[in-house]
Amino acid sequence: xxxxxxxxxxxxxxxxxxxxxxxxxxxxxxxxxxxxxxxxxxxxxxxxxxxxxxxxxxxxxxxxxxxxxxxxxxxxxxxxxxxxxxxxxxxxxxxxxxxxxxxxxxxxxxxxxxxxxxxxxxxxxxxxxxxxxxxxxxxxxxxxxxxxxxxxxxxxxxxxxxxxxxxxxxxxxxxxxxxxxxxxxxxxxxxxxxxxxxxxxxxxxxxxxxxxxxxxxxxxxxxxxxxxxxxxxxxxxxxxxxxxxxxxxxxxxxxxxxxxxxxxxxxxxxxxxxxxxxxxxxxxxxxxxxxxxxxxxxxxxxxxxxxxxxxxxxxxxxxxxxxxxxxxxxxxxxxxxxxxxxxxxxxxxxxxxxxxxxxxxxxxxxxxxxxxxxxxxxxxxxxxxxxxxxxxxxxx
Length: 396
What we know:
Shape: globular
Distance between the termini: 55 Å
Strand order of the largest sheet: 2-8-7-6-5-3-4
Radius of gyration: 21 Å
CATH superfamily of the largest domain: Type I PLP-dependent aspartate aminotransferase-like (Major domain)
Helix content: 40-55%
CATH class of the largest domain: Alpha Beta
Strand content: 5-15%
Number of helices: 14
Largest sheet: 7 strands, mixed
Number of strands: 12
Low-confidence stretches: none
Order of helices and strands: HHEHHEHEHEHEHEHEEHHHEHEEEH
């Protein structure tokens, strides 16, 4: 029996990140790993903080009855209470444990809320460029993704968002600090978005996907979306902030300012179960009970950002220096970003085309590789840039 048409179509549009990651594996086998500079996958290379590893050891050795069995689908109440208290301190919004559902990462949280609120044909506004998997999360649950462009500095345009809202709009996904651009959406824009939504009679959720919230540079701080926008649903994880991408632990937080809150709590708990997650991993819930506030050494990522951005700008690349996350999203020296990615690959440098994130003419570079690898890759970036300049001159 063949696979479904919808999945076959989605596979054809599947993530450029994975495609280039697989291309990298081939190149490494051909040239040797030391000669390939793989910027494709946002796989944290900064080790988890010591308090997290200590908490893990404590949890594994502690004799806690039924600590590895089923629990309420929303997660352990004592863990949810800790997360609610943390969010209340950070946002000034009075979250309670009933507002928190422990999830299988932020991706799990996104799918839980979308499953809970979407009927077939409902629309979800997503700002471009965006994390490439959002299109699949929305269509997983019968929704339609509506793309809205940001400006040339990757900041939202409130007028464009307003123009995209229709009677079928159910949600807007915000991702700040942003993957792939690294931009932090400033407080004034978030306030303007809240004012815009207040003018509509229909309920429109703001799904704030926040896995990079703690990864900010130069003394920046991510404004609290839930504090500034009333109808906020937070999706978060410790995948990036604690270097735990493979452990799949996160949470969904429903702002107590949301309408029909009790119904939404029940719906999200139900969808967490029926999507097959059942509950978030038990061990990692107990770990977060002891170490939810720990974060990785952000300075290590900032140093790599500075080295890479300084070098690219010196070569001639145009870029908006990221304020957070661990990505750089420079313009390509030719309009065809896919062609330029191939030119880089010929130099042993693996990047992801911006087209995969909804913004052609750019490439995404992940900072989750060793600093020495970044330094050794610079000549490859320079040669590819020079080849574009030579080809342009020849045409003239």
